[in-house]
Each structure stands twice: as C-alpha cells, then as structure tokens.
Write a structure and sequence with these properties.
The chain is α/β, with parallel strands linked by helices and 251 residues long. It contains 8 helices and 6 strands; from the N terminus they run βααβαβαβααββαα. It has one domain: Decaprenyl diphosphate synthase-like (Undecaprenyl pyrophosphate synthetase), CATH 3.40.1180.10. Strands 3-4-2-1-5-6 form a 6-stranded parallel beta sheet, with helices on both faces. The longest helix has 24 residues. It is globular. Bound molecules: 3-methylbut-3-enyl trihydrogen diphosphate (2 copies) and magnesium ion (MG).
Length: 251
C-alpha cells in the first residue's frame, strides 16, 4: 500500500460491505514450530493485503475482527503482545490509509484499553474522518452481544430523556445505534482458519450476509484468496425471503 490506489474495479457483483473473522494465527505458527505470537505478527501482512485489495476492488466498507471481548481469556503474555502489535500497526500504517482515502475506525468497547492506545486510536480516527473511498473498521474488544446491548442502552436513555418516543423505535432506528449503523448492510462475512462459527462477531449485522468459510489460516490469506471469496459472492443468489423465481423476474 505504499502508493495511492486509484483503481476502482467494482461491479454490480462486488460486495459493498465485507467483514472478516481473521482466525488461525496460532495454528499457523504452531505448524512451523513457532510460538503463537509469530502467527499474529505474520497476520499483519494479510491485513495489509486485504485492505489494499478491498480498496482496489471497490469494496466500500471492510470490517476486521482483531480482538474479541472473549480474547481477554488468553494467556496474559499473548494479550499483551496483541496490544503492542495493535499499537505498532496503528503507528506505522495510518498515514498510508489516509493517503488512500480510507476512513479508519475502531468498533468495540475501547474503555478497557490503555490510555496510550486509546489516544492512538483517536488520532487515527480524527486524521482519516473525512475520507470517503472506503471505511476500514477494526473490531477490538468487540462482541456482537455487547454491540446490541450497547445500542439498547442508548435507545433506552433517549426514551428516558424524552428525545425518542417508544413508538418511533423500529429496526432502522435501532440499527443506527449499533456499531456499523452508518455503513451499508453487511454483504459478505468471511471466516478463515477452518471453523464454522460466528464467535460473537456481528450478530445483528449478519442477518442477511452471505457466509464464506475457508480452511486457509489467516497469515496465508492474501490477495488471491480474498479475490476468490469476493468472486464467490458474485455467484450467490440473495433471495431475502422471496422465491428464486421472484428474484429472477425482478432482475
Ligand atoms: C486469530 O487467530 C487472532 C485472534 C483471535 C487475535 P488465533 O490466535 O485465534 O489462532 P488459532 O485459532 O489459535 O489458530
Ligand atoms: C475469533 O477468533 C476472534 C478473532 C478472530 C479476533 P477466536 O479464535 O477467538 O474464536 P474462537 O474462540 O475459536 O471461537
Ligand atoms: Mg482462533
């Protein structure tokens, strides 16, 4: 991502919003006789690759699961390395994101992070806030149940203060209080690393997303693998409750 990316190859088949559960770092390292941390470090290159590819392909929003609200349960040393890595990547990469017109944001409960990290996050968000080519959301200390509960709390507060009327609340109003409420609906949810679960990621947002699971471990998931996932989305028929015939007719 050293140079500014100017191409936009998006077509009708391109998912507007893609999210990725970046899983398999630990196993990638263990297969090589290395410590789990080595896998996380090598995973950073895959993050670079997918951000750059998403931008080139004309994806409008890319959401990456970096650290779940449950990942605090890992050994303290691994958690600490992950935090350091997050800090390092933010320091190194934000300028490049900015140059490429990418708006950066963190979703999740950042209150548990160190003040230093929170400051870095704020700086990155402020620097890139007016960029419009793509939105990169990094989910950190994120949980889908937290997201829904957090939205419910905000809605309840508005009702209590009289700013919102109970009968104004519908799905779209509620959605606007969730983490990605200002972005297009999630089209494609990818999980690397061979497991078939959502691990408390975008529970609300995944309602009608297409799922793509691959055995490829995250550090091996690069441009070609990502393009394969995007192309597979182009072949799906999204019916949103209708019949296949209805969908064909409305084309
Ligand atoms: C995903 O890789 C990265 C994070 C959860 C931070 P893992 O560390 O979960 O790797 P595996 O699943 O143990 O191989
Ligand atoms: C999901 O991976 C979280 C991230 C990729 C950040 P995990 O490896 O934590 O998921 P589980 O625990 O196997 O479900
Ligand atoms: Mg894992």
């Amino acid at each position: 991502m050293a140079e500014a990316i100017t191409t936009d190859n998006s077509t009708e088949q391109t998912p507007q919003h893609v999210a990725i559960i970046m899983d398999g770092n630990g196993r990638w390292a263990q297969q090589r006789g290395k410590t789990r941390v080595v896998g996380h470090k090598n995973g950073v290159e895959s993050v670079r690759a997918v951000v750059s590819t998403a931008r080139k392909e004309g994806v409008k929003a890319l959401t990456l699961f970096a650290f779940s609200s449950e990942n605090w349960r890992r050994p303290e040393q691994e958690v600490s390395v992950l935090m350091d890595l997050f800090m390092l990547v933010l320091t190194r990469e934000v300028r490049k994101l900015h140059k490429n017109g990418i708006r950066f944001q963190v979703i999740g409960d950042v209150s548990r992070f160190s003040e230093k990290l929170r400051k870095k996050i704020n700086e990155a968000q402020t620097l890139t806030q007016d960029n419009t080519d793509m939105v990169l959301s990094v989910a950190a200390n994120y949980g889908g149940r937290w997201d829904i509960t957090n939205a419910a709390t905000q809605v309840a507060a508005k009702v209590k203060s009289g700013e919102l009327d109970l009968n104004q609340i519908d799905e779209s109003v509620f959605d606007s209080y969730t983490s990605l409420g200002d972005l297009p609906d999630l089209d494609l949810l990818i999980r690397t690393g061979g497991d078939y679960r959502i691990s408390n990621f975008l529970l609300w947002q995944a309602a009608y997303a297409e799922f793509y699971f691959t055995d490829i471990l995250w550090p091996d998931f690069r441009e070609d693998a990502f393009k394969t996932a995007i192309n597979s989305f182009g072949n799906r028929e999204r019916r949103f409750g209708q019949t296949g015939e209805q969908v064909q007719e409305s084309r």
